[in-house]
Design goal:
Elements lengths: L6 H11 L5 E8 L4 E8 L2 H7 L8 H16 L5 H11 L9 H14 L2 H12 L5 H17 L7 H12 L4 H18 L2 H5 L5 H11 L24 H23 L1
Antiparallel strand pairs: 1-2
């Protein structure tokens, strides 16, 4: 991945795209020599300011587009695991925001396919153990259910998933406790009675309710997950091609918003 942009090319790109002031900066990992370099992508602030009140980087529209760009990059191996982890650490709490949870979920799934489910989930769960936000916990539980359904069990940190379920099962919010039971039921469907051993230290009154739900679940053999779609590893995807793709993505968003206004 060629991270260098010639000065003239960069100026020409900015002029052609009508780009002005505001910059979103992120670091790209050069996997060949493990040296971090910086790539700059510049948002068209003029157009965004015309459409968004109180323009700032924390505006959900800005974060939404940033997550779309990061998902494109991680899917195409334009950034490595180190930067993927930094992005996830920065944005993981956005899962509790209705307008951003889909974009963050897509980034996480793309990150998993680019690296591995075990390390990504361990990182998320380690952070969730320190949080009590019911919305955040419940949204991640929904995502974890999808991941358990879609990935091989040997790719997943089962003990960590059970641990976060046990923590959620002791939460004061009944909806969070229900979410914990739901995820445990999905795990039980593929793990069977081995799961009961892992949750036996849950408070007796709560455990009885969970086990009553587990008894309703039919245990099945976990099917082998279909092979992952191979990410684009084609040599020669340089910065210019990347910027062109991102520019198209941003311009399409502007066109959609313009049509809605009309």
């Amino acid at each position: 991945f060629d991270i260098e942009v010639e000065k003239n090319t960069d100026i020409e790109y900015r002029q052609n795209a009508g780009i002005s002031r505001k910059q979103i900066e992120y670091t790209a990992l050069n996997s060949a020599n493990e040296i971090e370099e910086t790539i700059y992508y510049v948002y068209d602030s003029g157009k965004l300011k015309a459409k968004l009140k109180n323009f700032k980087e924390t505006n959900f529209n800005i974060v939404k587009e940033a997550l779309n760009i990061f998902t494109f990059m991680i899917s195409n191996k334009l950034i490595g695991n180190d930067l993927g982890t930094q992005i996830l650490n920065t944005y993981y709490e956005k899962m509790s925001e209705l307008k951003l949870k889909d974009q963050l979920s897509q980034f996480i799934l793309a990150f998993i396919d680019s690296s591995d489910a075990n390390s990504v989930l361990k990182n998320i769960i380690s952070k969730l153990k320190k949080k009590s936000n019911p919305k955040l916990l419940m949204e991640y539980e929904t995502l974890f259910e999808k991941i358990v359904e879609d990935y091989n069990l040997n790719e997943l940190p089962i003990n960590d998933l059970v641990d976060i379920c046990k923590l959620m099962a002791s939460n004061a919010n009944p909806k969070v406790r229900t979410s914990a039971t739901s995820l445990l039921c999905v795990l039980y469907k593929y793990i069977g009675n081995d799961l009961r051993v892992l949750i036996k230290d849950i408070k007796d009154s709560t455990l009885k309710l969970i086990e009553a739900e587990l008894d309703k679940v039919t245990v099945i053999a976990k099917p082998t997950k279909k092979p992952k779609k191979t990410a684009n590893k084609k040599e020669g995807m340089n910065t210019r091609i990347f910027l062109d793709k991102v520019d198209t993505l941003i311009k399409d968003k502007f066109k959609d918003r313009k049509k809605k206004k009309q």
